[in-house]
Amino acid sequence: MPFCPRCGARVEEGDAYCWNCGLPLDVIYMLRRRPVAPPPTLTSAIKEAYLSLFRPSPHILYPTEAVYEKIPEYTPIKKYLIIGIVFVVVGLTLTTFGTWIRRLGFTLAAFTSPLLLLFWMYRNDRYEQEPISLVAFTFGWGVISTFIALLINTYMGWPAPFAALSEEPAKAIGLYWLARHKTLGKEFNDHLDGMVYGAAVGAGFAGTENILYIAHFAPLVGALTIILIRSLSPITHIICTALVGRSLGLAKVRKGEIHPTDIIPGLLVAMTLHALWNAANILSLTVLFPLYIASFAKLIREARRDELLWGYARGLAPKEQK
Predict the structure, then answer these.
(1) Is 97 exposed, middle or buried (0-12, 13-18, 19+ CB in 10 A)?
(2) Could you tell me the residue ranges of all domains in the chain?
(3) What distance in Å separates the CA atoms of residue 119 and residue 238, rounded to the nearest whole number?
(4) Other residues' Cβ atoms within 10 Å of the Cβ of residue 181
(5) Residue 3 backbone dihedrals phi, psi, to 5 degrees
(6) Pairwise pLDDT comparison (15 vs 44), residue with the higher score
(7) What is the dihedral of CA 256, 257, 262, 263, to 10 degrees?
(8) DSSP state of 19
(9) Half-sphere exposure of 113 (CA within 13 A, CB side)
(10) 135: nearest Cα among 174, 190, 89
(11) Which of 82, 117, 249, 313 could bond 194 through an S-S bridge, CB–CB 3.0 to 4.6 Å?
């Protein structure tokens, strides 16, 4: 029996309107009897990942039981908050050579925008917000991954657009580890969860990268100018890694488990959007920025709609640890 995609009220098969909020109920999701099958091939999954950026995604009426899983209450997850903090300190020290602690003003400015964007993303997960400890862990991995990507980019010496080939996979490693973890992966229930954790990784990466840019360009163009520019740029890292998380979450919804190839669709889209952003220069902020924001907001609304259809607003969401 389905639920209203606006208010989450339980409705009957064939109802024309929701009895609670009056929303007209589209026959496409009221009368379908069979689940939405997972993409039969990797090619189909990749196509869906790209098309979903601008085309409405179909409702997922019948998910696997993985969307209702929760980790046992006795599972120790608070230690991942400490691990996340350690990741942040070590990652910042290695990447900025201590600049982050010597120039605390730059550090605060660098992380303000990414943290605000992450908080906005976290608040969008209304029905089963993820444990702070795991969000902190993925945020910390984002900081560590900046150092990994910096090493690769320095060694390869390739142009800015090609940086996406190292930065997106580096960020995705920690996200994939969490999604596949035998126990912690039960907190990674669906595509909205994936976008939350992906946004956390992207925020950690973006803030760390911001320190490097602000410290380098502040003497040239002024601290305020570069801080304002870098306040908008983090959205790319956050959106791109969130799309990788979305791809992993969809695999969980459709199949109940995640295979190694399930990361490929989201990773390809992330690298494409990231490379376009780096190549577009001034057009990044004037053209791509609003397009990326609009597409990301659409995907969030669709993921939240699916959670409503599964009864999350009526108490069926898994109770997450805090």
Answers:
(1) exposed
(2) 1-33, 36-314
(3) 12
(4) 15
(5) -125, 155
(6) 44
(7) 120
(8) T
(9) 23
(10) 174
(11) 249
How many other C-beta atoms lie within 10 A of the C-beta of residue 229? 15
Would you say residue 55 has pLDDT above 90? yes
Q: Is the pLDDT of residue 84 over 60?
A: yes
Beta bridge partners of 17: 24
Tokens of 282: 């001034």
CB 191 within 8 A of CB 253: yes
The whole-number average pLDDT for the span 92-109 is 93
Residue-wise pLDDT tens digits, 56-76: 998 887 888 899 988 888 888
> In the numeric block, which tokens belong to residue 39?
């993409």
pLDDT in tens, 228-273: 888 888 899 999 999 999 999 999 999 999 999 999 999 999 999 9
Question: Whole-angstrom Cα distance, residue 13 to residue 41?
Answer: 31
| Spatial separation of the C-alpha atoms in residues 149 and 146, rounded to whole Å | 5
Sequence length of the chain is 322
Distance CA 69, CA 48 (A): 25
Task: Give the three-state DSSP class for 2.
Answer: coil
Question: For residues 57 and 302, is the Cβ–Cβ distance under 8 A?
Answer: yes
Q: List the Cα angle 44/49/54 in 5-degree steps.
A: 120
- pTM (predicted TM-score): 0.88
Distance CA 99, CA 203 (A): 19
Return the axis-axis angle of helices 79-96 and 132-156, rounded to nearest 10°.
Answer: 20
- pLDDT tens-digit series, residues 260-318: 999 999 999 999 999 999 998 888 888 999 999 999 999 999 999 999 888 887 777 78
* 103: region left, alpha or beta (phi > 0 left; psi from -120 to 50 alpha): beta
Sorted by sequence, the CB contacts under 8 Å of residue 32 that are 6+ apart come out as 61
Percent of the chain at pLDDT exceeding 90: 64
| Backbone angles phi and psi of 118, in degrees to 5 | -65, -40
